[in-house]
Amino acid sequence: MSLALLVIVISLALLIWSADRFVEGSAAAARYLGMPPLLIGMVIIGFGTSAPEMVVSALAAWQGTPGLALGNAYGSNITNIALILGLTALLSPIAVHSQVLRKELPILTLVTALAAWQLWDGRLSRLDAGILLLVFGGLMGWSIYQGLRARSDPLANEMEAELASHPLPLKRALIWLFIGLVLLIVSSRGLVWGAVEIARGFGVSDLIIGLTVVAVGTSLPELASSLAAVRKGEHDLALGNVLGSNLFNTLAVVGIAGMIQPMAIPGEVLTRDILVMGVLTLSLFLFGYRLHGGGRINRLEGGLLLTAFGGYTGYLVIYVAGAG
Q1: What is the tens place of the pLDDT at every residue in 284-303?
Q2: What is residue 86's three-state secondary structure?
Q3: Which of 11, 194, 229, 273 could form a disulfide with 187 if both were Cys (CB 3.0 to 4.6 A apart)?
Q4: Residue 124 — φ and ψ, nearest 5°?
Q5: Is the Cβ–Cβ distance between 238 and 88 less than 8 Å?
Q6: pLDDT of 22-75, one tens digit each?
Q7: Containing domain of residue 99, as a range?
Q8: Angstrom distances, CA of residue 298 to CA of 109, 132, 237, 295
Q9: Residues near 31 by Cβ (< 8 Å), separated by ≥ 6?
Q10: What Rg do the C-alpha atoms of the chain give, in angstroms?
Q11: Does 156 reside within a domain?
């Protein structure tokens, strides 16, 4: 048991470090190949920050632990909203712009509803997974098209400045890309092994381990980027990071895992985890549309999100895991 715990801690640290190196190397290499800054920001950085969830869930499905794969994806979504946005808002209130309310949040809500509808029959088939991946591809294509049409895109400008401020020779970029990818896979394998061993040792399902330990661990890159955005005064980026990550997890991460290994879905995923994820998503509408003081997630609401995260995680650990 102690060995499994040590492997989880080391694997999480290595997973975060390797994902960062992979993103850095990929972005610099893409720049040398002439990829526009907007595409680097949306595709390379977008995929890279969610690489821990994607690789861990894919390996978990491949090794026959689909509960871990599903728990990682949905648990990360809950962690992103309740823990990361809650903590970020507690440090500095987050503005919720009208564009987010009109476009990003409705899309995430519809995607969450699609996920719930697919799981209603208690199974995620390869057809279901294929639909998720098709929707993800369509949303990515639409977002890239919209971004390229805009005369001046903030993400493109930010990416241009970032690449210029941290130039990386092509040889070093390729080395970081290769090392990052290899260590990403190795650390993910270690994390999956450790999580399964912990689950067996405590007699709990791999779903619970995925929803708690693994989900929080793989969400650490989003936490770091959101806190960095707050320090720079770019509060809206914190919200954008979370919404983008949740879309990626619900569509791409679950879709890839489902294509690798179709899975039976425990009833509590629908009645507990998807429900909590949906309620947290809808709460962002309430914060953005409230009648007093404009759309903003203030410190009180950040505290409520953190309380919700503590209550949900505590319930899983004390009641569900305890009963197991």
Answers
A1: 888 877 644 457 788 899 99
A2: helix
A3: 11
A4: -110, 105
A5: yes
A6: 777 777 777 776 666 556 655 666 666 677 888 889 989 998 888 899 999 999
A7: 54-150+195-323
A8: 22, 33, 16, 9
A9: 37, 40, 163
A10: 19
A11: no
CB of 93 within 8 A of CB of 296? yes
* Upper half-sphere CA count for residue 163 (Cβ side, 13 Å): 28
- The answer as to whether 62 is a domain residue is yes
Q: Is the pLDDT of residue 317 over 80?
A: yes
Structure tokens of 133? 């991946």
| CA distance linking residue 26 with residue 146, whole number of Å | 23
pLDDT tens column, 199-229: 778 788 888 888 988 888 888 877 877 777 7
pLDDT for 224 equals: 78
In three-state secondary structure terms, 34 is coil
Task: Tell whether 270 is covered by a domain.
Answer: yes
> Strand, helix or coil at 63?
coil
Whether 32 is covered by a domain: the verdict is no
> Sign of dihedral through CA atoms 135, 141, 144, 148?
negative
The tally of domains found in the chain comes to: 1
CATH number for position 101: 1.20.1420.30
